[in-house]
Amino acid sequence: MKLQKYLQQLGYSRRKADDLAFTGRIMVNNQRIEQPWYEINEGDVVSIDGVDYVVQFETRFEYYVLNKPKGYVSSLSDPKEDKTIGEILRKRNLTNLKPVGRLDKDASGVIILTNDGELINVLTSARYGTERVYKAKVKGKVARAKLEMLKSGIEDEGEFLKCEDAKIVEEQVGYSLVEVKMIKGKKHEVKRLFAHIGNPVVELVRTKYGPIDISIVPNQGDIAKIRGDLLKALLDIKRLAKTL
Ligand code: URA
Question: Which pTM does this prediction carry?
Fold first, then answer.
């Protein structure tokens, strides 16, 4: 594989990849390489500004994001459900992909899809604390003191639950819109937190998972390929996890 192609696989644009090589910022097996067309092999060590990557060809890996529509379960198949994200993927010929984590049937929003098992493990592991952001429409007015309580943490069904941050973004008649940041990924965590303070969730949208924002899939059912800087940011999480 050409060095340029490998750098693109890491998430750099073609122009940036050429630029990195031409400006002498790349070493391959301790030798400075200034030709983007240089052939590299699996197992070679490519250093970019002194940061080492052991070459592993990932041409088989693909990364997409889906705005899961409400009413669909986030598993690939479920004998009890007729609407699964597996059905959406089959229609788009993307049957090799798996969802990263889960999202309730009655919720919508960002689900990353990939066949990169290592990335799935890193993103879903509480150990690496990938941030998820939700917009929750909850019943009633939310007292600020109660939001503070959710940030400190609560006990629910024997589990400790907390949000990293929560802020009220809008107050409507009888409802509040709250933006909530989570990092643990426990089952029904946002709903359980707000049920605990007496403001049940009536609508839930995941607007962000790590670096992947809902803005590239604004409508329920939209699917987009993750590329460029976004892909680089996503793969950086995997790389960083390896160093921890
Ligand atoms: N929190 C929930 O309550 N539901 C989800 O689907 C995700 C987070």
Answer: 0.78
